[in-house]
Write a structure and sequence with these properties.
The protein is an all-alpha fold. It is 58% helix and 1% strand. It has 21 helices and two strands. Strands 1-2 form a two-stranded antiparallel sheet. Helix 4 packs across helix 15. It is globular, with a radius of gyration of 23 Å. The N and C termini lie far apart (62 Å).
């Protein structure tokens, strides 16, 4: 792969349009388009880890995505500077890599359903163990895999590129490069891998973008492509933010003590070779006595260090990445004290944070809520003449409506589009309405 081809300002659905000069670059327009979009705003009411709302403000999908975009821009700018120094690629486009990565970071969670990963599990369970199992023989094996292993990453690609009813061709009309930068899993479902990058409905869209940008195909038989290089920067920004920010949120919620959090975050620094860092920390702590602010300072120090380390890892493996031979994430390639500290944070998060009752409770509730919504609305779209269906169908927005002639796979997708785009609160409210809960 090469940077001349990998960086493109062509937009989905606007391939035949002549590029018009704007006061913003094409990639900056991608960023702004996402910021002002309804699906992005709805992230403010989607669970990141901890229940919303609470007396202590913790991260939701919106604040998480904004922070990831900030870190992603730093990573992108670092790599942009090195590529410019090495005279690689179109300098005007290379200079905009920070904007590309930031935009992709904003979009990386857009396809996630309400209630986090339990939402994905609820969708899959409905088809594998619930009433949805009856549709198996009416779908192709690939279509069945799409819905029984619902994937937020694939849904993000669909949301960004699909022409929903009444909407324009090309979806968000994003640049090919920004779209490609969120494709963590550049292959379809049903090939034996846990994750996948696109539904059958978006297969032609994916393949067109991949071929236009010169993705290297690393497995011809299974149709597996190499990632766009910028995916590694988006992934690293996400990894850094959720891992470090979850620790800070757990401290605010008193799930982790001050001492535990201090040890976890200072664990990224060597007390001997980086003694100057501890001197700086002590100086700040002398000035700032608020414990939450102290942890915020430590968190910022850790993120800064990890950004520099991931930049070095990317650049040191630059050619391997372009050749499609790099394995794992940038975070996976941390070494020494940073690797040990990151693994300690992961283990702590799994044991102390993700299994905390407040987290598990919302996952259980979300599982039940989405399961019920799926059952009711899929019944409605597949039996539209039924009396109860006629009462439910008006709840579905026009852009997701279907008719009797619509193929079953598309009818199911229309419901998944509707439900996966909901906020946690809206899903709960609709669940209460159709379940008769709380009627006065």
């Amino acid at each position: 792969m090469n940077w001349e081809q990998l960086l493109s300002t062509i937009r989905t659905g606007q391939e035949d349009r002549k590029e018009i000069k704007h006061d913003r670059t094409q990639f900056q327009r991608d960023y702004d388009r996402l910021i002002f979009s309804s699906p992005f705003r709805r992230l403010q009411d989607k669970t990141q880890v901890f229940p919303l709302p609470g007396s202590v403000f913790v991260h939701n999908r919106l604040t998480h995505s904004l922070e990831v975009a900030s870190v992603g821009r730093s990573l992108g700018n670092n790599i942009s500077a090195r590529l410019l120094d090495a005279d690689m690629g179109n300098p005007d486009l290379v200079a905009e890599i920070g904007s590309v990565v930031a935009a992709a970071c904003l979009a990386h969670d857009l396809g996630n359903p309400p209630f986090g990963h339990s939402g994905e599990e609820a969708i899959s369970h409905y088809f594998t163990n619930g009433e949805g199992l009856k549709f198996k023989d009416e779908l192709t094996p690939s279509q069945w895999t799409d819905i029984t292993r619902f994937e937020g990453n694939a849904n993000a690609l669909r949301m960004l590129t699909h022409a929903f009813k009444g909407r324009r061709k090309g979806g968000f009309a994003m640049t090919y490069t920004t779209i490609a930068s969120i494709l963590k899993y550049p292959y379809e479902s049903g090939i034996g891998l846990k994750k996948y990058g696109y539904f059958q409905s978006e297969k032609s869209t994916f393949e067109h973008i991949a071929n236009s940008l010169g993705f290297k195909k690393i497995d011809e038989e299974k149709g597996i492509y190499a990632r766009h290089p910028l995916v590694y920067l988006v992934e690293a920004a996400d990894d850094i933010c959720y891992q470090v920010m979850d620790i800070e949120d757990a401290h605010k919620l008193k799930i982790l003590s001050y001492e535990e959090t201090y040890d976890l975050l200072t664990g990224f620094f060597d007390k001997e070779s980086e003694a100057h860092e501890f001197t700086k920390i002590n100086e700040i702590f002398t000035e700032v006595s608020d414990k939450n602010e102290q942890m915020a300072f430590l968190r910022a120090k850790v993120i800064g260090k990890l950004v520099n380390r991931c930049t070095d890892i990317f650049w040191n493996n630059h050619q391997t990445i372009l050749d499609g031979q790099f394995s794992g994430s940038l975070i996976d390639h941390l070494s020494g004290i940073e690797h040990t500290a990151m693994e300690t944070c992961k283990k702590t998060a799994f044991k102390r944070i993700y299994k905390h009752p407040s987290v598990v409770e919302i996952e259980i509730a979300g599982y039940r809520i989405l399961g019920t919504l799926l059952e009711e609305f899929i019944k409605a779209v597949t039996n539209p003449k039924d009396f109860y269906s006629k009462m439910l169908l008006p709840f579905i927005p026009e852009q997701f409506t279907t008719d009797e002639a619509t193929p079953l796979y598309e009818k199911i997708q229309s419901v998944l589009d509707f439900i996966s785009g909901m906020t946690d609160v809206y899903a709960l409210d609709l669940y209460k309405k159709i379940s008769g809960i709380g009627l006065k």
